[in-house]
Specification:
about 290 residues; alpha/beta; four-stranded parallel β-sheet; three-stranded mixed β-sheet; 11 helices; disordered N terminus
């Protein structure tokens, strides 16, 4: 991540110690994956999919394949980290192009945007899996994902994609704890969601606006912030709403003038900080059915 030690990293400080129950869940995960015979893992390089891929490789060896999407919604830094992990672990890795902006209606950011994206992505990964002789496709959602508005899980169900982490009951904190014990580099990595999730439902998503968000978040990460979202409100005079962990408010404020100038140079008219702090799915607050 950056040069912070584990004790200074607020993400790391929230990771619980590993329990015997967690270890048993991991063993169940490996056993479940071994039973599948062969698996193509939808691999983003994030916390969840890295543990899943590690377990799949442990269970299946060469009968495990990592497949990573390449698109405007997926920052280059994430793809590079995914590449590096697979190379280091000796895991076969395939890149597939996912053209979300080519999906009819996607650029208008409808409420089921994630469903449209995941449906297209899993179709492409499924094609690669079949070409490589993989019996199944697996993705990395965890039990905590069931408590938010996640239309992408509908695509998982429709295409019969395996969700091994949910199958064995693993939660995000448990995944981080096990990743730390296994020596995986992602154990204290910031949580990531595709860049399209930064926009208000119903507002335009474009290559240019995605690039603005990508560059803005990278600048904030370069300051040493460990968990960052730059949410975008408005099309004509876009507002950047920055979310960071409450423990890092001080660091952001200390660089406020620099951050404001940098983000305005990227095309944002106004730069703000969200006082409630970072939390996943905050754009879903505008949806009446968010918790349905």
């Amino acid at each position: 991540m950056d040069d912070k030690t584990a004790s200074e990293n607020p993400v790391a400080r929230r990771v619980p110690p590993v329990t015997q129950e967690m270890r048993e869940k991991y063993c169940q995960l490996v056993d479940y994956l071994r039973e599948q015979g062969s698996v193509a893992v939808a691999f983003s390089g994030g916390v969840d999919s890295t543990l899943l891929l590690h377990a799949a490789h442990e269970a299946l060896g060469e009968k495990c394949l990592a497949v990573t999407a390449r698109s405007e919604s997926f920052p280059q830094r994430e793809r590079q980290e995914a590449d590096a992990f697979c190379e280091r672990e000796g895991i076969a890795h395939v890149l597939v192009d996912s053209e979300e902006l080519g999906i009819p209606g996607f650029d208008h950011n409808p409420k089921d945007r994630c469903y449209l994206c995941k449906s297209e992505l899993f179709r492409r990964i499924g094609r690669v899996a079949r070409e490589r002789g993989m019996a199944h496709v697996a993705e990395g959602s965890n039990v905590d994902d069931e408590g938010d508005y996640r239309p992408g899980l509908r695509a998982v169900a429709e295409q019969r994609i395996l969700s091994p982490l949910r199958h064995v009951g693993l939660r995000k904190a448990e995944i981080r704890a096990l990743s730390r014990e296994l020596g995986l580099p992602t154990w204290d990595k910031q949580s990531f969601a595709c860049l399209s999730s930064r926009f208000v439902y119903g507002e335009l998503i474009s290559r240019e606006r995605l690039a603005m968000v990508d560059r803005a978040e990278q600048e904030l990460l370069d300051l040493g912030l460990t968990q960052v979202r730059v949410r975008v409100h408005g099309e004509k005079d876009p507002i950047a709403r920055i979310e960071v962990l409450p423990e890092e408010f001080g660091l952001l404020v200390a660089h406020a003038a620099q951050v404001a100038a940098d983000l305005r140079s990227l095309g944002f008219s106004y730069v703000t900080m969200y006082l409630a702090g970072y939390h996943t799915g905050s754009m879903n607050q505008s949806l009446g059915e968010a918790r349905a």
